[in-house]
Write a structure and sequence with these properties.
The complex is a heterodimer. By secondary structure, chain A is an alpha+beta fold. Chain A has helices at 16-27, 51-59, 66-76, 81-98, and strands spanning 4-6, 11-14, 38-42, 45-49, 101-103. Chain A has one domain (10-98): Arc Repressor Mutant, subunit A. Chain A has four helices and five strands; from the N terminus they run ββαββαααβ. In chain B, α1 links the parallel β1 (11-15) and β2 (42-46). In chain B, α1 packs parallel to α2. The chains are: A alpha+beta, B alpha/beta.
């Protein structure tokens, strides 16, 4: 089983205040927008990941397969499983192509 | 996506050496530990940091935590003798200000120092704080960087401290200087793709990057006390190098605590207000008033960027 992990050369951090504000919006049933909750520096350029992207990023620690990541998110977010699987797959493929994620 | 309400800044400048106030080794290391804890992305060590007795410890600690480390250097013999202390993945910024004479840049001396850095395998770039007098030097320095294949050239913001005297105000760039620079820039070489040019001031950046550019794609106005901060040699945090105002001490509180505290929030609240000098300006949504730190120095500007001529008012 292939496990994914973050590129160790990428420096990143979680923005606690933003995460709290997005969670609050979600709980209230409003749209939290695309506010970045995880910030990354890749080759000197800063990037932001939204809440779900950030959750995936934090979970990709070399201990899970892609399917296990979907299981984890499915338990956390109330969304259609098939849709989630497609979105996670596309997101991960994009990050692999960028070199941000690598197979362990 | 605008960058706002961060937990801690993303980039800081830190005056490692104190010209007057000695800081204990324990305190210096405590400040470094606070910066690591704050998960900063970029730290620029200022004021001859190579000459600080704990430079190696501080630099290694920050680099090991993933901070992109920039180390400024005036090119003195004493500093160059300490180059071996630079940790891997850090970059030296050679301050061209030390090579400026009454006749302009001493390119012979600059060339010699650059050769020394190359021979020692130092990853380096150039930095020059722009002043009205120095604007005319930028074109030649761009050519110098391209010729020598120097990968980075930085135009940082003006350092302001409590001792900033009125006589030094002639060093600040104003709207007239920007117009002059616009004309000079016509003859600048094409540096795209060959040189990383870091420009702090928005009005200079617009001239140097006439077609826009990725580095400013997320510009959301003055970043003082948000993604930016300055730390003086005693560990006091300020909104920015151009805005001396104590927000708290890293020897007492964490960066996170200082960033959630009232003094910092007051700075951000003041930046959120449209300055009087920017009222009814059609370009406010582009610049958001520009540099708010320097604007505090000139009352007549009513809060707008000193480099802005204020000629874009919407008619009634």
């Amino acid at each position: 089983m292939q496990r994914l992990k973050r590129n160790p050369d990428i420096v990143w951090r979680v923005e606690k205040q933003r995460e709290a504000s997005v969670l609050k919006a979600l709980e209230a049933g409003s749209d939290p927008g695309e506010q970045g909750t995880v910030l990354l520096i890749v080759s000197g350029t800063m990037h932001q990941l939204n809440m779900i992207g950030g959750t995936i990023w934090q979970s990709v620690d070399g201990s899970r397969s892609q399917k296990q990541l979907v299981d984890l998110l499915a338990a956390e977010y109330d969304v259609d499983r098939a849709e989630l699987e497609t979105d996670v797959c596309l997101f991960i493929e994009d990050l692999i192509q960028r070199g941000w994620l690598i197979y362990d | 996506m605008a960058i706002d309400l961060l937990d801690t800044p993303l980039r800081v400048t830190w005056d490692l050496c104190s010209p007057v106030q000695p800081v204990s080794a324990a305190d210096t290391l405590e400040i470094a530990a606070r910066l690591v804890e704050a998960q900063l992305f970029y730290v620029t060590l200022e004021r001859t940091p190579l000459l600080h007795p704990l430079f190696r410890d501080v630099a290694t600690t920050l680099a090991a935590a993933g901070c992109q480390l920039l180390v400024t250097c005036c090119g003195s013999v004493a500093e160059l003798s300490e180059l071996k202390e630079l940790p891997d993945h850090s970059q030296l910024l050679l301050d061209v200000g030390g090579f400026v004479t009454t006749d302009g840049v001493d390119f012979t001396a600059l060339e010699q120092t650059c050769s020394t850095l190359c021979k020692r395998g130092v990853n380096y770039g150039l930095t020059l704080t722009p002043t009205p007098e120095r604007l005319g030097m930028i074109g030649a320095l761009l050519r110098f960087c391209l010729h020598r294949q120097i990968p980075r050239f930085k135009l940082p913001n003006m350092r302001i401290n409590d001792n900033f005297s009125p006589t030094l105000r002639s060093d600040l760039l104003h709207a007239g200087d920007i117009e002059r620079f616009r004309q000079l820039a016509v003859d600048f070489p094409d540096f795209s793709g060959e040189l990383q040019l870091d420009v702090h001031d928005l009005f200079l950046w617009e001239i140097l990057f006439p077609n826009g550019g990725a580095p400013r794609s997320e510009y959301g106005g003055c970043q003082a006390a948000n993604s930016l901060a300055h730390i003086d040699c005693t560990g006091i945090v300020h909104p920015c190098l151009s805005w001396p105002q104590p927000l708290g001490s890293l020897l007492r509180d964490s960066f996170y605590a200082i960033w959630q505290d009232v003094p910092r929030q007051k700075i951000r609240d003041s930046i959120a207000v449209t300055p009087d000098g920017c009222q009814r300006c059609r370009d406010y949504s582009l610049c958001f008033g520009g540099c708010r730190g320097l604007s505090r120095l000139e009352e007549l500007w009513q809060g707008r960027d000193l480099m802005c001529a204020g000629e874009c008012k919407l008619s009634d």
